[in-house]
Design a protein that fits this description.
The chain has helices at residues 3-8, 14-24, 50-69, 96-100, 120-134, 144-149, 154-162, 164-172, 177-180, 234-245, 260-269, 301-307, 310-318, 331-346, 351-355, 358-362, 376-386, 391-401, 411-428, 439-453, 461-473, 480-491, 499-506, 508-519; strands at 36-42, 74-80, 140-143, 186-188, 201-205, 210-214, 220-224, 230-232, 249-253, 276-280, 283-284, 325-326. The strands form 4 sheets. The protein has a 5-stranded parallel β-sheet. A 3-stranded antiparallel β-sheet has the order 5-6-7, with no helix packed on it. The chain has a two-stranded antiparallel sheet with strand order 4-8. Among the domains are: 376-431; 439-519, Arc Repressor Mutant, subunit A, CATH 1.10.10. The protein is elongated. 41% of the residues are buried. It is α/β, with parallel strands linked by helices and 524 residues long. A motif ('HIGH' region) lies at residues 44-52. InterPro entries: aa-tRNA-synth_I_codon-bd_sub2, aa-tRNA-synth_I_CS, aa_tRNA-synth_I_cd-bd_sf, Lys-tRNA-ligase, Rossmann-like_a/b/a_fold. One of its GO terms (biological process) is lysyl-tRNA aminoacylation.
Length: 524
């Protein structure tokens, strides 16, 4: 056994822990289908949000971890529930009045309000695939519409007819009394209106695999359950899809966790082994509200990628998946810098430590080198004091600080400089609030200014940090009040970078001029 596999079999990193649970399924015999199947689901009722991306990313990490500890081939399917009826019009799409006319129709039968695809479902599926392709995921895309209409689902649908009473018994236990009176696991799609109907069944016929029902106008219809004429309610659909595909692993949000026993039992009734699950905590916006496709709150994938790299988003998604996380713009700079800290650490780690490092899972074991010689938070502060509106302005300072760096040799730093300018313009500049120093702070700033004006030592982070520290040490208790004053008086922010590093980047003479402006009341 290789050192890598041996370490992976012991690793406490959550992707390996989950991979080992999947591997346990096949300790005795390999899968009859010849592979292990990982699945993720997507409900295209609205534009794909960042939580959907997180689900695919995390499943990909577990899939890779499985491939490290096992030689069994793997597949990953991204399944879109695009045959679902559109129950409400999302608030963040155009042509709302038009969409109202198509309520309850399958999403792939609703016209695309953006006018770019054959249907609203197709549009949202295309957006999802574009997002996933941006990150280089390896997956097979399945459309529920195609799955039902092509006949791939027919055998399981027939089995659902044969096991109708057993499945209904599972479902009825979970429903309120009034819902039980009209509930059926089957939802017919009306042959004339094309709408998904929530109506009781008059008959479920296991001889010819048909259902009979009355529509909302009281007319009786009989339809075959096969060929896309009928779809399953969403809870039975979960378990039936697992049975039809032979799914071995699927993760979903905490809001599904109470339904897990239902999904599992239906899968078993339909003749297949239930998959392994992983329940993750939900993403919240800055107000602590769950992010949703229909309301469009929180950050979208495109918005994150406007201000930071794909890898920084992947890093944020890796961390503590079973802890609820607030997902708003202020988390971006921290994610960028922590990602690069982990990249730098990776080079000197042993195998065990590397397998516990998030960047191993983000990059599938092929971990690149970091060229971020200036932290992202520092670039933001530099953009702020320099009022930079293009990355070339930042490079003027970066080259002096790190002469070996250039946009060509340090592409991640170059990209970060561009992101920093955009982030500064949109989030920092509108909210900068400078304040005047107190008498004690003014005294300290004057001394710092004088020491820096006469400084002729090395322009290095540690040497300059020592000067800043010495000036504040005898005046401020706790010392963090001194650094807080520097940020608020000189940078117009409540927090900031290690100040010695900032001086080295911005320049000693430039920092002296900045302090002079602050003392003269010329900032802000």
């Amino acid at each position: 056994m290789s050192e890598l596999r041996e370490a992976a079999l012991q690793s406490k990193a959550w992707p390996f822990e989950e991979a080992r649970r999947v591997l346990k399924r096949y300790q005795k015999t390999p899968p009859e289908k010849g592979h292990v199947l990982f699945e993720t689901g997507y409900g295209p009722s609205g534009l794909p949000h960042i939580g959907t991306f997180g689900e695919v990313l995390r499943t990909t990490m577990i899939r890779h971890a499985f491939e490290v500890i096992s030689d069994i081939p793997t597949r990953m399917i991204c399944f879109s529930d695009d045959l679902d009826g559109m129950r409400k019009v999302p608030g963040n799409v155009p042509d709302q009045e038009m969409l109202k006319e198509h309520l309850q129709k399958p999403l792939t039968s609703v016209p695309d309000p953006f006018g770019t695809h054959d249907s609203f479902g197709d549009h949202n599926n295309a957006m999802l695939r574009r997002f996933l392709d941006t990150f280089g995921f390896e997956y097979e895309f399945y459309s529920a519409t195609d799955f039902y209409k092509s006949g791939q689902f027919d055998e399981v649908l027939k089995r659902a007819v044969e096991k109708y009473d057993d499945i209904m018994q599972v479902m009825l236990k979970s429903l309120r009394e009034e819902r039980r009176q009209t509930y059926s696991i089957f939802l017919p799609i009306h042959p004339e209106t094309g709408r998904v109907l929530y109506v009781p069944m008059k008959e479920v016929n296991a001889q010819d695999y048909t259902i009979t029902f009355d529509d909302e106008d009281g007319r009786e219809w009989t339809l075959p359950v096969t060929g896309g004429n009928v779809k399953l309610q969403w809870k039975p659909d979960f378990g039936a899809r697992w049975a039809a595909l032979g799914v071995d692993f699927e993760m979903y949000g905490k809001d599904h966790s109470t339904n897990t026993p239902i999904y599992d039992r239906i899968c078993e009734i339909l003749g297949q082994r239930k998959p392994e699950h992983f329940t993750y905590e939900l993403f919240l916006d800055e107000n602590g509200q769950k992010i949703s496709k229909s309301s469009g709150n929180g950050i979208s994938i495109d918005e994150w990628l406007t201000y930071a790299s794909t890898e920084s988003l992947s890093y944020f998604m890796y961390l503590k998946p079973k802890t609820a996380k607030r997902l708003y713009f202020d988390v971006i700079p921290k994610a960028v810098d922590e990602y690069h800290q982990q990249l730098r650490a990776y080079a000197g780690q042993d195998v065990k430590a590397r397998l516990n490092n998030p960047v191993y899972h983000i990059h599938g074991g092929e971990v690149p080198e970091s060229y971020m010689v200036v932290p992202f938070a520092m670039l933001l502060n530099l953009a702020s004091v320099a009022s930079a509106h293009d990355k070339d302005t930042l490079w003027g300072f970066i080259r002096r600080y790190a002469p070996e760096a250039s946009p060509e040799t340090h592409p991640d730093l170059d990209a970060a400089a561009g992101f920093a300018v955009k982030y500064f313009e949109d989030f920092v500049q509108p909210h900068r609030v400078y304040r005047a120093p107190t008498e004690l702070e003014r005294e300290a700033l004057v001394e710092l200014r004088d020491v820096l004006a006469g400084y002729d030592g090395p322009v290095e982070d540690e040497a300059l940090q020592s000067i800043v520290y010495a000036v504040g040490r005898d005046r401020f208790d706790p010392l963090r009040d001194w650094f807080k004053a520097l940020y608020e008086v000189l940078l117009g922010a409540s927090q900031g970078p290690r100040f010695g590093g900032f001086i080295a980047l911005y320049g000693v003479a430039e920092t002296v001029a900045l302090i002079d402006k602050a003392l003269a009341g010329e900032l802000g």
